[in-house]
Write a structure and sequence with these properties.
This protein is mainly β. The protein is 0% helix and 39% strand. The relative contact order is 0.25. This is Nitrite reductase (NADH) small subunit.
């Protein structure tokens, strides 16, 4: 369910995010990491690993996950949930791709 204060904002083009890579959207309330999978799906998470706050944007994207560069936690891109045996969650930001443009619900 969409919050009353959310609105969709165009943030970049798909080509601004490297395949199997990320781009950071700097925000006062916390940076957002935008991730692109090898099949051009886009996901957005708060750029902080739930373990010790490592920058997820500097991690390796593989399949539907990103691996934190600090301690190797694997975070599911769709949900922000850490893969077992680790427990924690990075805040997910709703995203969509339309006509080559990336939109976030902010």
């Amino acid at each position: 369910m969409k919050k009353a204060t959310e609105s969709w904002v165009r943030v970049c083009t798909l080509t601004d995010i490297p395949p199997l890579g990320s781009r950071v959207l700097a925000r006062d309330d916390g940076d957002i990491a935008l991730f692109r999978t090898d099949d051009d799906r886009v996901f957005a998470l708060l750029d902080r690993c739930p373990h010790k706050g490592g920058p997820l944007s500097q991690g390796m994207v593989h399949g539907d996950s990103v691996t934190c560069p600090l301690h190797g936690w694997q975070i599911e891109l769709a949900s922000g949930e850490a893969r077992a045996p680790d427990v924690g969650c990075a805040r997910r930001v709703p995203s969509k791709l339309e006509d080559g443009m990336v939109w976030l619900a902010l």
